[in-house]
Amino acid sequence: MEPSTNRFSKDLIWGILGGMGPVASAEFIKTIYEGFNMRSEQNAPKLIVFSDPSIPDRTSSLREENHRKYLLDEITKKLGVLISLNVDHVVICCVTVHALLPDLPQSVQEKITSLVTVILSEVLASSEKHLLLCSSGSRECQLFESHELWPRSESQIIMPTYSDQRRIQKLIYDIKENRVTESQYRTLPGLLEKYNVQSYICGCTELHVYKKLLFQRAAHNFRCIDPLQSIADHMRR
Prior knowledge:
CATH class of the largest domain: Alpha Beta
Mean pLDDT: 92
Oligomer: single chain
Number of helices: 11
């Protein structure tokens, strides 16, 4: 289910675990505040941000058990720091690392607003099909397919072929490295045309950055489900 309205009370303190990558989580924070009426800045959302780019690469870490355990330990420690600061809720600015959520202590899980839950809840609330753009790590560990909402939302989600998945993975890493090329601005329109859909899912937080770059170039007239945008919008309301 989509997080309840009281989760977005202005009196709450939100913890944001970022750095995965740092540009995506910084852009999320900008998104939260840039749409807010700053004539009343005292009512803007309260955030505590822990941006740690040293967290290991999620896709490669999930492929090997020892690396997966190290990644889990690191994420658990970072979340512990945020929770020790008395945050009410936490957003982890990486979709792929949500594969580790079931391994976290229940008390920690209860603090986290799952980006996967937000995505699939919005899919169910829609009446159309959406192309899923996510990391190869999310595909390989079947992150979306293992969610409790998947059986109800599966018919509305189109999974790219594995050759297209490689293109998406390259796009994600180019966004991380701040080197999106001219041809990559045509990647999304081309994929949507190929799969005959008008909507896509930002199943990786780097795509929040890509979406905004396309808007700036007036090259984006498609619908999308972007969990970071959705959470920011709820916070502002």
